[in-house]
Predict the 3D structure of the following.
Amino acid sequence: MIHEPASRAAYRLDTDMGQEVLNGLLEMKFVQVAAIRLDDTSKLVMVERPIFASRYRLLSDYIFDPIRIYRQPLYSHEPEKEYFGELILSIDTAYEGKAFIQRSVVVVFAGIIRAIAMALLLYLIYSTLLTRPMNRLIRHLSSINPEEPGQQQLPVPEGNENNELGLWVRTANKLLTSINDHQTLRQKAEARIMRLSQYDYLTRLPNRRTIQNQINTFIQNASKKHENIAILCLGLDDFKSLNAQVNFNAAEHILVKVSDRLRNSIGNKAYIGRLGEDQFAIIQSKIEQPYEAAEMAQSLIKQLDRPFEINSEQLTISATVGITLFPDDGEDVDTLLQQAEFAMIMAKSRSHNRYQFYVATIDTEIRQRKRLEMDLHQALENRELSLAFQPQFNYQKGELVGAEALLRWNHPEKGLISPDMFIPMAEHSLDIIPIGDWVLKNACQQLSNWHLVGYQNLRMAVNLSAIQLQDQNIVDRIAFLLNKYKIPPETLELEVTETSIIDDLEASKAQLQNIKSIGVTLALDDFGTGYSSLGYLKQFPFDKIKIDKSFVDDLPHNRENCGIVEAIVQIGKSFGLKVLAEGIETVEQEAYLAKKGCQEGQGYYYGKPLSAHDFINLVSSQSVLSTNTQEKTGEPGSQGDNND
């Protein structure tokens, strides 16, 4: 509507018409300046008015800007639309800003009033319909015992039994009951875990950690009152052998019976716990003199003298006890326990079924044993090991028929070390594997040398350890050595002990049968000293049994040993086995054994363990020994009726 007259005014350069057009625009209050500008940038006409003064201006200017300028191009109506200039308008935003702010204030206040009204309505609804029942529920919730949440149920608000609130209350009660049940189970589980962490699962005695804590408590109390404490470490003797003899359940049953007997014997006089598989700790507090601990140890050892009945079988168990004293021997828990165990170990190394007090020298002995174990590990490489050969005599032939290869260790500093000391060390550290292979190889090589120099009838006896017997390659190794050194299989005699086969009877039986298939001779060593059973002789392919030296001692004067020897000889005859007696030292022993039917003997009477050279010298002079033997027995052919 304004564009056309403004375009004419610009086209005609008519200021009056332009003035009228602009005056018409000023009729609109928000127009502050209006002007028509020609295309040569000169103004044809312009009108303006003062800026509108408004109390809202500060806010409206911030929102909309004070002035907004608009430009409208002016063209002719001809087809070419000739450009004449432009219409310029300056709009004062205060007018519309004032109206906008006023409307906004109205809307805000109306919204606030509506919100207040809605809040008031909700408050009235809440206070009248929900507050009272919810307040009651909240009070009941606050009174629930967290330890037993299921003991107090939430009441269903009256009139809400079948609506959502009633459903919520019933669900909450079920949840509280479930929480209570699970919490009870958790508490029982925690109590069980706590007990398992403090007590031995089998014997129900305190375990090692609990024992250490209890000793620490005793030490603290004793330190304040200047009292003495005795720590006793009781270890069962040969429990591993017994464990192998019976099945697993029976072994556990034995431990339970042992612990019950010890616990009943001690009563309230001391504190008892289980240290390990076959070890128990006894803490004796408030003792005046060391002899009180000795009396306690002797009493416990005596309690185990009575046999245990397991699966209708009577089993005897002995124990060895080590004793250490607080504060004389030490003042901390670990040291005292270690010293008690050391004392027990050293007591076992000397004999069984006894007690021993800890002394400072035990530490030295333990260190020496550890050092010796390290030296033994290098002994084979350092060529410190050698073989000695103990003669074996045949009574029927009246001559030396072979030798048992015995291992010797010549320590560079300590000299000759007893096999009773270093053989168990080697078995424990598994050094027995390379050492056993070395012994077997060198024994075969030496036997081959004897055969080559004309002594083809000599045989060699070699001990196989339990670990060697378990080796799956032992059969191939024996066959290889027999073939390498051209040894007749029957001249190689392999000895095993009962303890080496008792761990796994079926596996040992299969292994010995494989070894026997090569053609070598098998001997059961130390017969009668272990858990002897005729079942071994029936199941295993033995050719010979060896009577242990302990039964040969004091023959023929010891009637008990005489009875045992006669029984073993009769067993050998019954099963068609040769019998060899070890440890023969006197002519009387030889005469008695030969008379009772023992075919062979071995011991110092025929010669101590000798070097290979000395042994051959002894064999070469055996005709003299045979003559002397016949003179001593008085009956050169009296053994002829015995099976060889």
About this structure: DSSP finds 23 helices and 20 strands in the chain. The radius of gyration is 55 Å. The first strand starts at residue 31 and ends at 38. Confidence is low (pLDDT under 50) at residues 623-644.
